[in-house]
Amino acid sequence: MDEVRPTSGAPAHGLVPMFPPGLQAIYGECRRLYPEQANPLQVTAIVKYWLGGPDPLDYISMYRSAGSPAQDIQEHWHYVSFGLSDLYGDNRVHEFTGTDGPSGFGFELTFRLKRETGETAPPTWPAELMQGLARYVFQSENTFCSGDHISWHSPLDNSESRIQHMLLTEDPQMQPVLTPFGTVSFLQIVGVCTEELQAAQQWNGQGILELMRGVRLAGGPWLITDMRRGETIFDIDPHLQQERVDQGIETEGSNLSGVSAKCVWDDLSRPPEDEEDSRSICIGSQPRRLSEKDTEQIRETLRKGLEFNTKAALPPISSQRPSHDRPQSRKDSLESESSAAIVPHELVRTRQLESVHLKFNQESGTLLPLCLRGRLLHGRHFTYKSINGDTAITFVSTGVEGAFATEEHPYAAHGPWLQILLTEEFVEQMLGDLHELNTREETKLPKEYSWPEKKLKISVLPDSVFDNPLQ
C-alpha cells in the first residue's frame, strides 16, 4: 500500500552525505525543471520492496508543470518514478555493476497528465499505474524502450475513458543523468486509444507518437495525456493520419516482432493415437519443454512490442534488448547473438509436418493481417508465444535466416515450437481470405479458414476455449 506525503526533505541545497546518491541524482534533474518545487507531493511505498513490500517503486514524485504557453503546451501534472534505477548502490534491490553501464534497469518512468480546471492536487492513480508497470519489469526482467507499446485493455484511471493503452517515448524535458551507479534515462508513458495502439502495432510506436505530437488534442509536442479525450488522431484528421500510417506500413513494415497470446497448434499429419511420434499440442497437455536455444530465440523476437495486461500471466522475457539502431532489411534472422553462445544445442529432433491447425483467440487472430502484411511481406518473422505454456508459433518468410522451416518443408517443429514458412504468393492469398479480421468490429466466433492445397487450417475461437481447457 502507498501513502501520499510531502517529500521529507532533502533540502534543495547542501544534501547530507547519507542521502542515497542515486536518489539524489534524479532529484537533481527534477530540481533543474522545478526549482520552486523542492518538496513536491510524493506517493511512497509504506513497506519498501527490499523489505518485502509489493511495490518496486520507492517513490513517485508529482510536480505541477506550467507547460509552455509559447508552444501552446497546456498546464499538467508531471509524475516521476524512483526505483527502477539503483537508488542506493548497496545491492538491496539492484546488483551494482559499475558506473559505465545502466543503473538498475537503466530508466525511470514519467507521465504527463492534463490538469483539469480547478484541480489543486494531482490525482494519485498514475502512481499505481506506474507501480503496475514496474512490477512487470521486476518480475519479467524485461526493460522498456522508446517506441514500445503496452496493451492495457482498461481505462488507465478506471473510468469510462477511451484512453486504455500506452506507448512509451523519451521524456521531452528530462535529460539522462549519470549517477555513481550508472546512467538513468526517463521514459514517458503516453495514454492512447485502441485505434492508436493498433496503428502502432501495424506500423511502429515512434511513427504514431510523431503524429500525436502534431495534434494538440492528442497530446501535442510534450505528449500530455488527456483522459477525457474522446477522439483519436484518426477522428481528428481522418484522411491525412490514416494515409501516413498506411504509407508507413507499406514502405517500412511493422516493428512488432512478437506477442504473448492465447494460441495452440495441432499436428494433423499423424493419427491422434500415435502419441510417441506425434506432437499434437493441446491446452492441458504436457509437451516437452523448449530448449534453451529455442527459448532464447523466441525471447529475442518478443523483446520489442510485447503486449500484456494486468491480468495475464506473463512469460519471462530477457532484459537484454537489441539495438533500435540496427537497420531492418529484407534478410531478417531468427538467430540472436546471445543464443549463438548456447552450446551444445539441446537434442530436439526437427520434425517436418504435413498438415497443421492453428488456433487463436480473437485478439490474437486480429493480428494475423499485421503479421502477414507488416512482417512477412517485408522479409521478417512474427512469433506468437502462448501465455499458457511453452507453445510458440513463428511465421517466417523465405528471406529469414536461422529458421528450421524450409520451402520444401514449410511446417516444422522443435518440441512445442512450430515454425511456418509462407511464400509471398501464399501471404497475398491469405491476406485476401483473412480480410474481415482487419475490421474493428467483433467477428462472430468460432471462425475457420482453410487452405486445403496447403494443408493449413486456422481457427479463431472464443477466449473460453483457452481459459477453460477442460470444458
Key structural traits:
alpha+beta; nine-stranded mixed beta sheet; 22% helix; Gyrase A, domain 2; 471 residues; 19 strands; 2 domains; single chain; six-stranded mixed beta sheet
Order of helices and strands: EHEEEEHEEEEHHHHEEHEEHHEEEEHEEH
User: What class would the helix/strand composition place it in?
Assistant: alpha+beta
* Biggest pleated sheet: 9 strands, mixed
Which ranges are low-confidence, i.e. pLDDT below 50, for 5 or more consecutive residues? 8-17, 274-288, 304-330, 335-347
First-last Cα distance? 38 Å
Shape: globular
Helicity level: 10-25%
Question: How would you sum up this structure, described in words?
Answer:
With 471 residues, the chain is of the alpha+beta class. Helices cover 22% and strands 23% of the residues. The strands form three sheets. Strands 1, 2, 3, 4, 5, 6, 7, 8 and 9 form a nine-stranded mixed β-sheet that branches. A six-stranded mixed β-sheet has the order 10-14-15-17-16-12, with helices on both faces. The two termini are 38 Å apart.
Walk me through the topology.
Blueprint: E1 2-6, H1 21-33, E2 41-45, E3 59-65, E4 76-82, E5 102-114, H2 125-140, E6 149-151, E7 165-170, E8 177-179, E9 182-192, H3 194-202, H4 205-213, H5 233-236, H6 238-252, E10 258-261, E11 263-267, H7 292-302, E12 350-352, E13 356-361, H8 362-365, H9 368-375, E14 381-386, E15 392-396, E16 411-414, E17 417-421, H10 424-433, E18 447-451, E19 456-461, H11 463-467
Parallel strand pairs: 5-9, 10-14, 13-19, 15-17
Antiparallel strand pairs: 1-2, 2-3, 3-4, 4-5, 6-7, 7-9, 8-9, 11-13, 12-16, 14-15, 16-17, 18-19
Helix pairs in contact: 3-4
